[in-house]
Amino acid sequence: MIPFSRTVGWITTAVIATGLFIGLVIFRLSSDLPGWVTALATVGVVLVVGALAWSAQFWPAIEYRHASYRVDGDGLEIHRGVIWRVVLNVPRSRVQHTDVSQGPLERSYGLGTLIVYTAGTDHAQVMLRGLDRADALAIRDHLLPREADDAV
Fold first, then answer.
1. pLDDT reported for residue 144
2. SS (H, E, C) the chain
3. Is the domain of 87 the same as that of 137?
4. Taking a C-beta distance cutoff of 8 angstroms, is the pair 116, 88 a contact?
5. Measured on CA atoms in the order 94, 99, 105, 106, is the torsion positive or negative?
6. I want to staple 75 with a disulfide (CB 3.0 to 4.6 A). Which of 65, 92, 107, 119 is the partner?
7. Between vectors from CA 83 to CA 79 and to CA 87, what angle results, nearest 5°?
8. Is the dihedral of CA 93, 94, 96, 101 positive or negative?
9. 33 shares its domain with 82
10. Exposure class string for 103-118: b at 16+ Cβ within 10 A, else e
């Protein structure tokens, strides 16, 4: 999970940094402002890119330490959040259906996202990202109804 999140973070940082540096070059070439203003803009861009780079490298490990989940006979409980902590309880009786999805990067790391659709409007879709694909499939199968309740 951490290497995947770092890869996503570095890709995001590279895209944003490229845009900021191109914008900075255009600003410096087309601006008639004093040199200290362009220097201040340059320092601002460097600080923003530095913060993004720090976030890409170190935040995934911090976030991972504050995330957990538990699956039992009653359902699924998810704990996450570093600054704002959230606990989501999904009772098995409220589960409508489940999906496991993989994007191209997730597939290359062997990860998947479990999506649980529930009855009701509050948290009607709960996502559990960064699971091993086999674990996501096992949890999906565990949360499915055990007896045939449908009248179809």
1. 80
2. CHHHHHHHHHHHHHHHHHHHHHHHHHHHHHCCCCHHHHHHHHHHHHHHHHHHHHHHHHHHHHHHHCCEEEEECCEEEEEECCCCCEEEEEEHHHEEEEEEECCHHHHHHCEEEEEEEECCCCCCEEEEEEEEHHHHHHHHHHHCCCCCCCCC
3. yes
4. no
5. positive
6. 92
7. 20
8. negative
9. no
10. eeebeebebbbbbbeb
Q: What is the pLDDT of residues 107-148, one digit of tens each?
A: 999 999 999 998 876 768 889 999 999 999 999 988 887 665
Residues listed for the chain:
152
Residue ranges making up the domain that contains 133: 68-143
Q: Which amino acid is present at 151?
A: A
Q: Is residue 85 part of a domain?
A: yes
Give backbone dihedrals phi and psi of 102, rounded to 5 degrees, phi first: -140, 130
Task: Please indicate, yes or no, if residue 130 is contained in any of the structural domains.
Answer: yes
